[in-house]
Design the sequence.
């Protein structure tokens, strides 16, 4: 019988958890049943490209946390990307986004990092999907952290087609690399 040991087993398990996270995000409840959550998994050589882009954006914008987060991505096994595609207003005219639904469609444009403004109800859908995904990771003891910076770089690289994206790097080490960032 073949045996999977050590780091290989951890990598395989984390990739399986990433897949479960994508399912959890996809099946999360959505306002008015609008199904526009998209997911992707980045691993292997693509992680380095993603981290390099994050570092580049951090230097261009002087957002130092992008550079810090790039280091975390380099140490990760995989990154789950979760976003909203075609995030049109859902028609409530609640103005939580600052506009009514007719206005938001007229003013929505590509901004510095995401397409905006975005319907607040759509953003709530994204938040529910993200919460569902990270719950799976936490239940499976896989370290993770939601990162705006990862989503910006992933979108810029075209790793996922979405109006707004949040990235969730995943790790399985003896010390959570996303929250305890002090030297060992």
Sequence:
């Amino acid at each position: 019988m073949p045996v999977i040991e050590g780091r290989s087993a951890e990598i395989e398990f984390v990739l399986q958890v990433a897949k479960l996270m994508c399912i959890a995000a996809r099946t999360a409840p959505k306002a008015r049943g609008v199904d526009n959550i998209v997911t992707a998994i980045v691993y292997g050589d693509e992680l380095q490209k993603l981290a390099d882009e994050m570092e580049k954006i951090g230097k261009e914008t002087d957002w130092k946390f992008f550079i810090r987060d790039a280091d975390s991505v380099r140490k990760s096994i995989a990154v789950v990307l979760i976003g909203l595609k075609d995030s049109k207003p859902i028609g409530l005219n609640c103005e939580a986004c600052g506009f009514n639904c007719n206005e938001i469609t007229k003013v929505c444009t590509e901004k510095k990092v995401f397409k905006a403004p975005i319907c607040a109800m759509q953003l709530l859908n994204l938040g529910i999907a993200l919460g569902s995904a990270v719950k799976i990771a936490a239940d499976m003891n896989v370290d993770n952290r939601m990162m705006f910076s990862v989503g910006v770089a992933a979108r810029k690289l075209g790793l996922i087609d979405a109006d707004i994206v949040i990235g969730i790097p995943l790790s399985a080490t003896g010390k959570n690399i996303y929250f305890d960032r002090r030297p060992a």
Observations:
- The chain has a mean pLDDT of 90.
